[in-house]
Specification:
about 260 residues, eleven-stranded antiparallel sheet, Jelly Rolls, binds zinc ion, disordered N terminus
């Protein structure tokens, strides 16, 4: 538009490079949960620099993959331990073959009966699903960048998955009757669907219904209510907008009124 004030390509490149390094360091801290002080400048840069925006997406994706790997490892280790304990219990160290079989039978029959009774009493019992509603881009979940196309849409969010919004991005996680809105430049990790729980890595959310929002700086519990929770510069801020909102941090437990 204004050729006289447009910097040369070399200048622009040099300027971009000067600014990119600290921004990428900020992104590394952000996905590691240390985002905070002086966020405005890097956020502005991310909205203007395609290379750094791509770096941000990759960092979020990598963090989500690491989170999922850790969760799978933990689950596999817990399962192996359960099996070992059960085997040790079922086949005692000094039991005979017939003794072992008898012991197995006494274990298995009541267990089968319990499973049968339970499935009759609870014909349908699903783990609730988390639905991710994209209200405006950019929104990234671990599997794909959901932002670019379509501008609005839906996805399913798995346990342990990280969901992050970019500059101006907005998304809402639905679990049953509870929902949690992510404002711009916010990252959360889905920790539980049965009792809706997320870990706030950075940014701001508005939680409605029953939620537990955990963070490096403390925990906020919302019971049939509504609250805005932010983690900025390592500080957990919480504003109650209704219902019972409890904040637990290093200073203790506080029930917030609205
Ligand atoms: Zn850049």
């Amino acid at each position: 538009m204004e050729p006289t004030s447009t910097p040369s390509a070399a200048d622009a490149e040099r300027g971009a490079h000067l600014a990119c390094a600290p921004v990428r360091e900020w992104v590394r801290l952000f996905v590691a949960g240390g985002g905070g002080a002086g966020d405005a400048a890097p956020r502005r840069h991310l909205s203007e620099c395609d290379a750094c925006a791509a770096f941000y997406r990759e960092a979020v994706r990598a963090a989500a993959c690491i989170g999922r790997e850790r969760r799978l490892e933990r689950e596999a280790a817990a399962k192996a331990l359960r099996h070992r304990r059960l085997r040790r219990f079922a086949f005692g160290a000094r039991s005979t073959r017939t003794g072992r079989l008898a012991r197995l039978r006494t274990l298995i029959y009541p267990a089968l009966f319990c499973v049968l009774a339970f499935s009759l009493a609870n014909p349908v019992r699903f783990e609730p699903l988390a639905r991710l509603e994209i209200l405006g881009g950019p929104v990234h979940a671990s599997e794909a960048a959901l932002a670019s196309a379509p501008p609005t849409g839906e996805a399913t969010l798995a346990l342990g998955e990280l969901c992050a919004t970019g500059n101006g991005g907005r998304a809402r996680i639905h679990i049953g009757a509870s929902n949690l809105e992510l404002l711009g430049h916010t990252a959360v990790l889905l920790e539980s669907c049965r009792r809706p729980r997320v870990r706030l890595v950075a940014g701001s959310v508005i939680a409605e219904g029953s939620w537990q929002v955990t963070s490096a700086a403390g925990v906020v519990r919302i019971e049939q209510g509504r609250a805005r929770v932010s983690l900025e510069g390592g500080e957990l801020a919480c504003e109650s907008l209704g219902g019972v909102v409890t904040r637990i941090d290093a200073r203790g437990r506080e029930v917030l009124s609205h």
